[in-house]
């Protein structure tokens, strides 16, 4: 379960990393807001993706 | 001399012992794994430099797009039709397959050459990363024509980064490789985000209506920077094709494709080529224009994406330098008797760090990439000839293994001879490997035809 949560959060962070420059490109936010938003989304990605990658995979029994 | 080479070969054999046997069917991997592997492997710090150099070499937008589309396609096809079929038939690494063909002695020479080339490549990664750290300390990035370090600060920064990369490589390659897997999707996003963020400053409207006009007139406008050769379609096509020449035509990636279920898995390399070697190069081209066409990857990343951009550049450098240092260390282990793993990595790291002080390694990166592929290419031709062409003419294969030759002198002669001919070919460096490949292929088959009973 934890793996799924961390995986989802890491994907959301990565999506945010992409959304910030798009919003800046569209002129909705200024460069400094984009840069700080991108930095925080990046930090979130590294935290959640590392947690996701280090959780053991659920072993399937047949 | 022969005794020394035999001892070196024996030590190297022990190091590669774990992959001596062909891969068994239960170890084969799915296509998705190959797609993921290639997607992660081809977004490195050097992409910041390569795409930017295309702009400085005055490529036009049309030549860039068509050259990258076709050049990367040729690279994918080279993996699919040259490398992968041999890999799935033999299920061996290049090391063990070359040993059967060229003999253990030549395999040692090949490994050492490879190690030195790896160190130079890792040195370029460190130098690129140094431009990012240099920003914080106001250290001027070297000029385009720089060969030697331009300041004590530059030397200190490259030494610090080299020491850090080496220390991390010593601390644990396996765990760091896992962390590198986490980095790779994000590094790719850094390129996209950086390019998108600077587009408004170049005058691109938010509806993208004028993006092609801006690309043609402001980014890839066909005007080369002073002192840079003018590049066109063929330069781009060949560069994209040979950028990983050692891996596909040179057959280094036998190590990867021996785990493929089918040779068609070579097509999965497109997941590395088009996002990494096309999109990332286009993005870095846009970023260099935003900083006034200065070849300063650190400044490019900072201006485009702030501190996250700088971190992206550092991580892109480190994630590529780390396995490169490891491979160089492994290759050098043959000539360093009984040295522990940390000592070898330290030696490779020290050599790499010294190389990284010289900015020429990244200021002439495009030429170095060409030379790297060119130097190893004849060995790929020898293996290809031995695998496919000799059976066609009913010629005996694997004579080095059968007769216990330490060095297959024909293979060595073809390797050296091809490089000498390529050196004198009156064409641009980027185009030399292609005739060189056929020269190597034909000359090896001809030399093998002159059969003498060597025992």
What's the topology here?
The complex is a heterodimer of chains A (62) and B (455).
Chain A: H1 2-25, H2 31-54
Helix pairs in contact in A: 1-2
Chain B: H1 2-15, H2 31-41, H3 46-56, H4 61-90, H5 94-136, H6 152-171, H7 173-198, H8 211-219, H9 233-242, H10 254-257, H11 270-290, H12 297-332, H13 341-356, H14 360-363, H15 365-392, H16 399-402, H17 409-424, H18 433-449
Helix pairs in contact in B: 1-5, 2-11, 3-11, 4-9, 4-11, 5-6, 5-12, 5-13, 5-15, 6-12, 6-13, 7-11, 7-12, 11-12, 12-13, 15-17, 15-18, 17-18
Keywords:
heterodimer; A: 62 residues; mainly alpha; 2 helices; elongated; B: 455 residues; Hydantoin permease; 70% helix; globular
| Main β sheet profile of chain B | none
The description of the largest β-sheet of chain A is:
none
Radius of gyration of chain A: 15 Å
Rg over alpha carbons of chain B: 22 Å
Describe the global form of chain A.
elongated
Q: Secondary-structure element order of chain A, as H and E?
A: HH
Order of helices and strands of chain B: HHHHHHHHHHHHHHHHHH
How much is the average pLDDT of chain B?
Answer: 89
Query: What oligomeric state do these chains adopt?
Result: heterodimer
Shape of chain B: globular
């Amino acid at each position: 379960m934890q793996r799924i949560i961390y995986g989802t959060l890491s994907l959301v962070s990565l999506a945010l990393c992409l959304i910030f420059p798009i919003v800046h490109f569209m002129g909705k936010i200024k460069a400094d807001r984009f840069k700080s938003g991108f930095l925080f989304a990046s930090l979130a990605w590294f935290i959640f993706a590392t947690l996701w990658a280090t959780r053991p995979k659920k072993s399937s029994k047949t | 001399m022969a005794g020394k080479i035999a001892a070196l070969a024996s030590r190297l054999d022990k190091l590669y012992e774990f992959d001596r046997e062909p891969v068994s069917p239960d170890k084969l991997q799915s296509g998705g794994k190959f797609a993921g592997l290639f997607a992660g492997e081809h977004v490195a710090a050097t992409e910041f430099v390569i795409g930017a150099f295309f702009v400085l070499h005055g490529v036009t937008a049309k030549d860039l797009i068509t050259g990258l589309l076709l050049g990367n396609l040729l690279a994918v096809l080279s993996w699919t039709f040259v490398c992968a079929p041999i890999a799935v038939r033999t299920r061996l690494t290049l090391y063990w397959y070359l040993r059967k063909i060229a003999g253990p002695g030549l395999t040692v020479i090949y490994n050492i050459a490879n190690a030195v080339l790896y160190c130079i490549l890792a040195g370029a990664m460190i130098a690129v990363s140094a431009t990012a750290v240099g920003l914080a300390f106001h250290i001027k990035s070297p000029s385009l024509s720089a060969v030697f370090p331009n300041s004590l600060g530059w030397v200190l920064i490259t030494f610090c980064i080299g020491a850090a990369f080496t220390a991390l490589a010593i601390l644990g390659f396996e765990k760091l490789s896992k962390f590198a897997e986490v980095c790779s999707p994000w590094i790719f996003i850094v390129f996209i985000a950086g390019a998108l963020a600077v587009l408004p400053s170049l005058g691109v409207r938010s509806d993208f209506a004028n993006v092609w006009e801006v690309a043609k007139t402001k980014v890839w406008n066909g005007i080369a920077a002073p002192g840079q050769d003018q590049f066109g379609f063929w330069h781009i096509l060949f560069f994209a094709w040979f950028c990983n020449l050692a891996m596909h035509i040179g057959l280094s990636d036998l190590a990867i494709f021996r785990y493929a279920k089918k040779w068609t898995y070579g097509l999965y390399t497109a997941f590395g080529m088009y996002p990494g070697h096309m999109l990332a190069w286009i993005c870095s081209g846009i970023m260099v224009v935003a900083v006034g066409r200065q070849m300063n990857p650190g400044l490019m990343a900072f201006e485009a994406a702030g501190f996250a951009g700088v971190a992206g550049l550092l991580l892109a450098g480190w994630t590529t330098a780390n396995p490169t240092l490891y491979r160089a260390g492994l290759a050098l282990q043959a000539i360093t008797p009984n040295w522990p793993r940390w000592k070898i990595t330290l030696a490779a790291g020290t050599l790499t760090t010294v190389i990284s002080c010289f900015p020429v390694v990244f200021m002439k990166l495009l030429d170095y990439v060409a030379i790297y592929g060119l130097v190893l290419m004849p060995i790929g031709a020898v293996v290809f000839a031995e695998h496919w062409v000799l059976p066609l003419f009913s010629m005996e294969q694997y004579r080095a293994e059968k007769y216990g030759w330490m060095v297959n002198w024909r293979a060595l002669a073809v390797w050296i001879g091809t490089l000498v001919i390529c050196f004198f070919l009156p064409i641009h460096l980027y185009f030399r490997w292609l005739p060189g490949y056929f020269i190597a292929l034909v000359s090896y088959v001809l030399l093998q035809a002159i059969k003498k009973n060597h025992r």
